[in-house]
From TrEMBL:
Cited CDD domains: PP2Cc
Source organism of the structure: Paenibacillus albus
Name of the protein in its database record: Stp1/IreP family PP2C-type Ser/Thr phosphatase
InterPro entries documented for this protein: PP2C (IPR015655), PPM-type-like_dom_sf (IPR036457), PPM-type_phosphatase-like_dom (IPR001932)
GO molecular function terms noted in the UniProt entry: protein serine/threonine phosphatase activity
């Protein structure tokens, strides 16, 4: 497996409130990745996303390779719920961090399956056989309006409340984690990203990048980041690409 990771503050923000991490565990054949997009007052979003990623990493430290799929799904949910507890406690006990929170998308890949954990509007996509599929369902007001037929997808893109998240990590004591399982086979690519990428870069542009076989995974991550910046870079931008390839390496 090959992993490429990019994060950028963008052209408007002064602080990068996105936090991401990935690790390949060659001995166990596991791969882990997480993207968190923080929100809150002065630097609070940065604190929330960093705390969520750190707690997630600690919760999955030393994960054995012998877990069943159901155990991996449970572990993913527990790790994200532990992160929710840590962020919520910090926000509740420190006025400076009041109401801080973060989105989260995480992947735990082993053998022929990827387990995805998700809260908020950061996304996971799968690229397989020249087809791009969004695996996660945005926890946003506009997505609820689209699903209920009140507005169209086109209207959602410019809706005045398009940034309103209906579910986040750390803002409430209890939160529901979406757990998704997807097949994982040779040449598949998973893309984890914050909305700073997907609000700036269209699905067709993502496809146009991923289908360029002459580019390395590293170059594809660079290209996606560049497209978001060229479109305005209105938000922090983070992307992790995981490629089911023969090689095993991590690119920074």
């Amino acid at each position: 497996m090959i992993v490429a990771y990019r994060s950028d503050v963008g052209r408007i923000r002064t602080i990068n409130e996105d936090t991401a991490w990935s690790e390949l565990l060659a001995d166990s054949g596991l791969a882990l990745a997480i993207v968190a997009d923080g929100m809150g007052g002065h630097k609070a979003g940065e604190v929330a996303s960093g705390m969520a990623v750190d707690t997630f990493r600690e919760a999955l430290d030393g994960i054995p390779s012998t877990l069943t799929l159901e155990e991996r799904k449970t572990l993913m949910s527990q790790a994200i719920l532990q992160a929710n507890e840590a962020v919520y406690e910090a926000a509740s006990s420190n006025e400076q961090y009041h109401n801080m929170g973060t989105t989260v998308v995480a992947a735990l890949i082993q053998d022929d399956t990827a387990v995805i954990g998700h809260i908020g509007d950061s996304r996971v996509y799968k690229w397989r056989d020249q087809v791009l599929t969004q695996l996660t369902d945005d926890h946003t007001l506009v997505n609820e309006l689209v699903k209920s037929g009140q507005i169209t997808l086109e209207e959602a893109a410019t809706h005045p409340r398009r940034n309103v998240i209906t579910r986040a990590l750390g803002t409430d004591e209890q939160v529901e984690v979406d757990i998704i399982c997807t097949g994982w086979r040779a040449d598949d690519v998973l893309m984890l990203c914050s909305d700073g990428l997907t609000t700036m870069v269209s699905p067709s542009e993502i496809i146009g990048t991923l289908e360029q076989n002459e580019l390395s995974l590293d170059q594809k991550a660079d290209r996606l980041l560049q497209l978001a910046l060229e479109a305005g870079g209105d938000d922090n931008i983070t992307v992790i690409l995981l490629h089911h390839a023969e090689d095993t390496k991590q690119e920074e």
